[in-house]
Amino acid sequence: MTESSTVAATADLLVRTAEHLFDSGVMSHSGHANLSARLDGERFLLTPGFVRGLRADQVAVVGVDGQVLGGRLQSASTEIVNMHGVVYRTRPEVGAVLHTHSPAATAFAVAHQPLPCRTEPMLRFGQAEEVPVVPWGPRGSDVSVRGISEILAQRPTTSAVLLANHGLLVFGPDPRQAADLLTAIEESAEAELAARALGGAVDFPAGALEAVRAYMARAAS
Ligand SMILES: [Zn+2]
């Protein structure tokens, strides 16, 4: 594929991922999200600061170091560039990063509580461990980005983090798989909150999460 057709196809994938997230009911009332997809080792595509009604020609090209290389970002969203860039720099295997304010997951972020892995979809889509909380910092600030970087180092197999007092950041090999995990995390957060009325959610049997992590480690090697 030529450079321009690769960019166009990847931008189109981000537009379809945004539509899929709305269709799945995981967006907050504001519809706020920013979605990105890797182009190569140095660059990724990033939505411009909104995703409702997004067109493929509105997606920007950004360097993993945070420099805008093509297209335009709304002023506020230049702050979130590094939130995506730090994941691409730290995790070479990551092909897509999605950020939303999905309501139930955000409840855990606001409560500064990690979201345990206690549902089958979370296991199936690869998050066989709790979703950890990154301490609050103004979004895209050095504090927040450093916090994400530290958690990624401490949790080399996590595919998502909660951003304290803010929302959810999920990453995966491509936008569709990341969107599937994001939906599984939001469903898990809803189930976790609902189960509290019934006496509280219960862990998987001992060893279940370790078995899935071992399987995934073998599949990745
Ligand atoms: Zn946000």
Please characterize this protein's 3D structure.
- The chain has 221 residues and is an alpha+beta fold.
- It has a single domain (3-220), classed as 3-Layer(aba) Sandwich (L-fuculose-1-phosphate Aldolase), CATH 3.40.225.
- It is built from seven helices and eight strands; from the N terminus they run H-E-E-E-E-H-E-H-H-E-H-E-E-H-H.
- The protein has helices at 3-24, 81-90, 103-110, 120-124, 142-154, 175-196, 208-220, and strands at 33-38, 43-46, 60-63, 68-70, 96-100, 133-134, 160-163, 167-172.
- The protein has an eight-stranded mixed sheet, sandwiched between helices.
- Strand 1 (33-38) and strand 2 (43-46) form a beta hairpin.
- Helix 1 (3-24) runs parallel beside helix 6 (175-196), helix 2 (81-90) runs parallel beside helix 5 (142-154) and helix 3 (103-110) crosses helix 6.
- The protein is globular and about 50 Å long.
- Residues 32, 99, 101, 139, 166-167 line the site of zinc ion (ZN).
- Residues 12-193 form the Class II aldolase/adducin N-terminal domain.
- This is Class II aldolase/adducin family protein.
- One of its GO terms (cellular component) is cytosol.
- InterPro entries: Aldolase_class_II_sugar_metab, Aldolase_II/adducin_N, Aldolase_II/adducin_N_sf.
